[in-house]
Amino acid sequence: MMKIHESAEDYLEAMLMMQEKNGFIRSVDIAKKLGVTKPSVSYAVKQLRENGYISMDKEGHITLRKSGMEIASRIYKRHVLLTKYLEHIGVDPKVAEADACKMEHDMSEETFEAICRQARAAQIV
What we know:
By secondary structure, the chain is mainly alpha-helical. It folds into 2 domains: 6-70, Winged helix-like DNA-binding domain superfamily/Winged helix DNA-binding domain (Arc Repressor Mutant, subunit A); 73-121, Diphtheria Toxin Repressor, domain 2. Helix content is 70%, strand content 5%. Helix 1 packs across helix 2 and helix 4 (66-88) packs across helix 6. The mean pLDDT is 92.
């Protein structure tokens, strides 16, 4: 699996969340969701498009390509599970959400799988 930067993972994850919620992805919505400027989104979208993770139509609607969807799904799955796990062990929901965002990128697959096993055993997921 190709390693991409954490910020690119954040963009792809946000895009997946928007696609699932709204049925479409627009740059302006990405900027709002991530709290970044429109020029920052334009640069990121250009990089993601050039690397084959997304495509964009003439109206500016973004579509996750297979490789982008795979990364977005992996990060989103980690985010959801880590948030639930942290809440289960007593972390405030807002703190759990913020900490999950930090953890989802850098955690090894081994550690994540161990947390998954614990979460299943505790019937969190």
